[in-house]
Amino acid sequence: MLPDIPRDRQLGILRKMLMIRRAEEHCIRFNEEHTGLIRGHFHVYIGQEATGVSVCDWLNQDDYVFTTHRNHGHVIAKGGEPKKVLAEIIGRATGYCQGRAGTFHVAAPEVGILHTSAIVGGCLALAGGTAYAAQMQERKAITVVFFGDGAMEEGVFYETLNIAKLWQLPMIFWMENNYRRTGRGAGHAATELTNVPKALNVETAVIDGIDVGIVHETAKEIVRRVRAGQGPLFVEARTHLWPGNAFAMPKLVGGSTDIAWAWNPSAAPEKVRDWHKDSDPILNYVRELESAGVSRGEIEKLDALVSSEIDAAARFALESPLPEAKAALTYAFAAKGN
Length: 338
Ligand SMILES: Cc1ncc(C[n+]2csc(CCOP(=O)(O)OP(=O)(O)O)c2C)c(N)n1
Ligand SMILES: [Mg+2]
Fold this sequence. Notes:
- By secondary structure, this protein is of the alpha/beta class.
- The chain is 42% helix and 8% strand.
- Helix 1 (7-33) packs across helix 2 (49-56) and helix 5 (122-136) packs parallel to helix 6 (155-166).
- The model has no long low-confidence stretch (mean pLDDT 96).
- It binds thiamine diphosphate and magnesium ion (MG).
């Protein structure tokens, strides 16, 4: 469904989701077309864009967001600049963390993302920290922590949830369930993952995480309640794994998303056809906008504008210098001159 908001804001959500999709397609091409440009492993947020964008649409600049190894999407959703995200992914001096963090740890304090951890569950306790600080300082800021279903296997999840409930922290636990299973099948003994927060008396909601309207309406209510002191709350947003994420490294198995696949699904390569037809939050949203009277031409124009903006961001990243060797110790010690 479409969120019940003015058309401009509806299109703003599409724009943000496309910014993330186009930026991450560049990220994958960085890896596919260059050797050693991305050092080590990386992950992308493709297929989960409806979640981060719709939640962040209700947040203020001074609200906090914590995220995971799929952080690129959340940073852009919270207002981060794609060029500084892409530059960070390839370790450039112009990146958000001046090339020190790389793809796994992109953090942008100016938009409320103080730290990112690729350690599964790593950000949960830190998120409890900013929620506690805001409560102590009697500020209105709330904290949203995004994490995957896998993070619910970690001890830190239980400790953070428990203390957040005991202290009524202004905090949203936003779990993105992408049903990505590594190793031996199911990773949790609970039949329903929401049974776990329920056992700690934390209210939960389970929603379709690829439906922008549902996510947006849920986020509106949850954010309102947590701001009003009714936190913490827990949401499980269910998404469908993008076929390019089924490998150790993400791959553009069907090439870049063509916005026209929204109205011409049979044109998509077979490997990704069903996913784009039924499970792609962006193309589903495009179809809904079209049904509500937004023309194909308008949607294509928006996509073309976003794509050229993100192409420029990728060029910026590629043309940016690596940090100077002598900067290696900057910020390493809490001393003058750092
Ligand atoms: C503590 C820890 N254990 C293992 C890993 C390796 N690892 C990286 S992603 C991942 C899966 C995490 O699942 P989930 O939290 O659901 O995130 P998803 O990748 O499905 O989005 C694992 C096990 C890690 N980064 N940190
Ligand atoms: Mg998962």
